[in-house]
């Protein structure tokens, strides 16, 4: 395999290599995949400790992609070229996205606060988010392949 020069230049093929790991969509997908894997571990521990006295269930803090999106958006200035275009920027999240601290609605006599149905639902949600991230990566890779073939 040829070593890449400055800017991803490959002297053998005369082409520039693209580092997709630097694209925002792939950074966010990797973060979501890592978060989903970690959350699956935490939820599995909760389920494993369903009969442990005084055990309190744990969960990960939800991901917030706004900071990453804002840092990526600040690299390229968006300009409104027509009055009919949307204004640049990311809108603030609405009230339906606000996170409130949850308290268990059920507790065993021994103080255990793990609700298996709740944990299984969270596991299912995590699996769906993981699968969605995988599909997102596949679709974007296919779009890149199509775009690179179009120039040939």
Features:
2 strands, Flag_bb_rod_N, cilium, single chain, Flagellar basal body rod protein FlgB, 152 residues, mainly alpha, FlgB
Q: How would you summarize the topology of this molecule?
A:
Elements (H helix, E strand, L loop, with lengths): L8 E2 L4 E2 L7 H25 L17 H8 L42 H35 L2
Antiparallel strand pairs: 1-2
Function: Structural component of flagellum, the bacterial motility apparatus. Part of the rod structure of flagellar basal body.
Pfam family, one: Flg_bb_rod
Protein name: Flagellar basal body rod protein FlgB
Helix-strand sequence:
EEHHH
Q: Tell the overall outline.
A: elongated
Side by side, the strands of the main sheet go 1-2
Helix run count? 3
In short:
By secondary structure, this protein is an all-alpha fold. Helix content is 45%, strand content 3%.
Q: How is this structure best described in words?
A:
With 152 residues, this protein is mainly alpha-helical. It has helices spanning 24-48, 66-73, 116-150, and strands at residues 9-10, 15-16. A two-stranded antiparallel ribbon has the order 1-2. This is Flagellar basal body rod protein FlgB. Belongs to the flagella basal body rod proteins family. Structural component of flagellum, the bacterial motility apparatus. Part of the rod structure of flagellar basal body.
